[in-house]
Design goal:
about 240 residues, alpha/beta, seven-stranded mixed sheet, globular, binds S-adenosylmethionine
């Protein structure tokens, strides 16, 4: 797809979903370059099942862009289980004022993010190969926000993410359908880890005749997480909070 077609689709999709104020010529060009780099790299390294441009615009870029309005200016954000950079990379492109740490246990995904950041001159992202439960040992309560998309159920995710968030910050998981069920299931975990559900935003995204049901939960960090969390992943899975 040539840039002009991409730009028309990008503005169409973002416009339809109330996101168009996030766009400008510079970030549209970066999103175009990133989408092409993703599709090219994906021919050799398995990074995403979505490879058509409209799908990338809708299911990766718009889906992640919704987070932008939930994050304060100049904040630090950690993306746990970022995979090929979602939501990290669209966030970094759309919000150059925030500092993003992208965390994933798989080196090939982090290598991809570092390569993309270098190629596109994205300077507000640091990508690190680590498991969240190991990373938390040296980076407890180090971020204004944590986010995560498509990594685990919320009760498990809370143990990986809430210890990384500063008191006064928030955990903003991106969730799909059945989010309310996950929120109900995670009540004990949220409380035990020093969090409090502030609000759950339920919304639909639509483009090209397709609709996605989505939810962003805003979980405020109101007190420190006990040092024993997060536990080893085997323990988290065996005995979820
Ligand atoms: N967030 C991306 C997205 O929405 O496209 C990737 C989702 S992918 C299904 C899940 C990712 O989480 C994988 O890349 C995996 O390596 C990573 N992951 C799972 N558990 C993790 C952990 N405990 N710490 C760090 N990364 C983890």
């Amino acid at each position: 797809m040539i840039f002009e077609e991409f730009k028309a689709s990008l503005y169409g999709c973002f416009g339809q979903n109330g996101l168009s104020t996030l766009l400008n010529e510079e970030n549209a060009e970066k999103l175009y370059a990133f989408a092409n780099h993703l599709v090219e790299t994906n021919k050799n390294v398995n990074l995403t099942a979505i490879t058509d441009m409209n799908g990338i615009i809708f299911k990766h870029f718009a889906d992640c862009a919704v987070l932008c309005s939930h994050i304060n200016k100049g904040a630090s954000v950690i993306d746990v289980g970022c995979g090929a950079g979602f939501p990290s990379l669209p966030l970094a492109i759309l919000r150059p004022d925030i500092q993003i740490t992208s965390l994933d246990s798989t080196a090939k995904k982090i290598n991809f993010i570092n390569g993309a950041a270098q190629k596109l001159s994205i300077n507000n992202i640091t990508a690190i190969v680590s498991r969240a439960e190991d990373f938390a040992k040296d980076h407890r309560e180090g971020f204004d926000y944590a986010t995560s998309r498509a990594v685990a159920r919320l009760n498990i995710l809370c143990e990986l993410c809430l210890p990384l968030v500063k008191v006064g910050g928030s955990f903003l998981p991106l969730k799909a359908s059945k989010a309310q069920e996950e929120i109900d299931e995670a009540q004990d975990a949220i409380k035990l880890l020093g969090g409090e559900i502030k609000k759950a935003y339920f919304y639909e995204l639509a483009f090209c005749g397709e609709t996605l049901e989505r939810c962003i939960a805003e979980i405020a960090k109101t007190s420190r997480s006990l040092d024993k969390y997060p536990r080893m992943y085997s323990q988290i899975l065996k005995k979820p909070l």
